[in-house]
UniProtKB/TrEMBL annotation:
Gene3D superfamilies reported for this sequence: P-loop containing nucleotide triphosphate hydrolases (3.40.50.300)
Signal peptide: none
Domain (AAA) ranges: 3-178
Source species: Reinekea blandensis MED297
Listed name of the protein: ParA family protein
Stored Pfam families: AAA_31
Superkingdom of origin: Bacteria
Family classification: To B.subtilis soj.
Amino acid sequence: MSHILAITNQKGGVGKTTTAINLPASLVAMKRRVLVVDMDPQGNATMGSGIDKNELEQSAYDVLTGKCHCTDAIIPAPQAGYDLLPANGDLTAAEVELLDMKMKEHRLQYALAEIKHKYDYIFIDCPPSLNMLTVNALTAAHHIFIPMQCEYYALEGLAALLETITEIQKVVNPALEIGGILRTMYDPRNTLTNDVSDQLKEYFGDKVYAAVIPRNVRLAEAPSYGLPALHYDKSSSGAKSYLALAGEFIRRSEGEKADTSLSADLE
Ligand code: ADP
Ligand code: MG
């Protein structure tokens, strides 16, 4: 059964898109079948996957508004090895068009239902707000995966996200759960990082992943080459940290004994 995760945090710049590219690429390296869905009109996950958002024939916009079938819009990301449902600025219009549609919260869920059997994991990269696109992602998802920076305002922002989750559970998706909290741009030498980190563990317990993502310039450079860090600089701390995250993710999802060995070309 495929496992659908929405990568969400209404704060911008916390590493959602970086995670939506690099965690899937690492899971592909561990031989899992993965789809990445770009639900952000900025199309950063699309560009970072090596697909030009300005040259799309069909995109997430067409799928959400019923203009095309999911399979007609999904394309392989050239280097990363996962499949991509790409997005660009058109998606902003979907947000408005959806408001008048029936079952408007369920459009993505229904679209994915037809193709989800092809994948082990589906990751949805959400925009930095709690709009109708994010609601569609949270309705389609089994779990929410929350990247966050360990800074004071991060916790404050999380409270709003938790309220949204409760609301979604009440109205459209009672089974929605937090799948994991990922500490990004992590600096263990910073006292505030450690304080916030401790508070997160106190509140969320083992939902907080042991794997952390350090600040690493390779992670910031790789998207401009349309590559996950793993295929840009395999030896970088960024690439390694996302591989470690993928290992932990698989063990949590599939059990301690699951195979996390890398495909032969990456060993
Ligand atoms: P979001 O999708 O939450 O807005 P991004 O993943 O786009 O966040 O990250 C915001 C910016 O920070 C981007 O320029 C990205 O390349 C950079 N970035 C993200 N994670 C890291 C990291 N661990 N180290 C260094 N730069 C990072
Ligand atoms: Mg983003």
